[in-house]
Amino acid sequence: MKKEKRTVLIVDDSILILERMIPLMEEIENISFVIHAATYKEGLEVLSRLTPDMILLDINLPDKSGIELLRFIQEQHMEVAVLMISNNAGPYYRDICKKLGARYFLDKSTDIDLIPSVLSNAC
């Protein structure tokens, strides 16, 4: 059975990470649309228009913490899988993000190549 096509939102201000993730996502057959937001505010604007199937969310955004965006997603009861991607990958941040509903948490510096398998399983 073929999975339906999914939409992914990336909320991260790092161009280097974005340039790395786009080719990784092209490997995933069931992702049809990737949207990018570089700030908390841009992420909110996208979420006001649509609900993606998956959000890749950085903790360190230039205008506000990605944890606050994760909190917003939870408060709005949005049915979306959230994958936190961060260089702040210690237990403190992992625990906070899991408590706020993040399904996955990957370290940008060591786990970025795991994104295709996580997204394939999540989507």
Write a structural description:
This protein is of the alpha/beta class and 123 residues long. The protein has a domain at 9-60 and 69-101: Response regulator (Rossmann fold, 3-Layer(aba) Sandwich), CATH 3.40.50. 43% of the residues lie in helices and 23% in strands. It contains 6 helices and 5 strands. A 5-stranded parallel β-sheet has the order 2-1-3-4-5, with helices on both faces. The longest helix is centred in the N-terminal third of the chain and has 12 residues, at 15-26. The protein is globular. The two termini are 14 Å apart. The model has no long low-confidence stretch (mean pLDDT 90).
Q: Quick gist of this model?
A:
The protein has 123 residues and is an alpha/beta fold.
Order of helices and strands: EHEHEHEHEHH
DSSP helix fraction: 40-55%
Low-confidence stretches: none
Query: Major sheet, described briefly?
Result: 5 strands, parallel
Please describe the topology of this protein.
Elements: E1 6-11, H1 15-26, E2 31-37, H2 40-49, E3 54-58, H3 66-75, E4 81-86, H4 91-99, E5 104-107, H5 108-111, H6 115-122
Parallel strand pairs: 1-2, 1-3, 3-4, 4-5
Keywords:
Rossmann fold, 123 residues, globular, 43% helix, five-stranded parallel beta sheet, alpha/beta
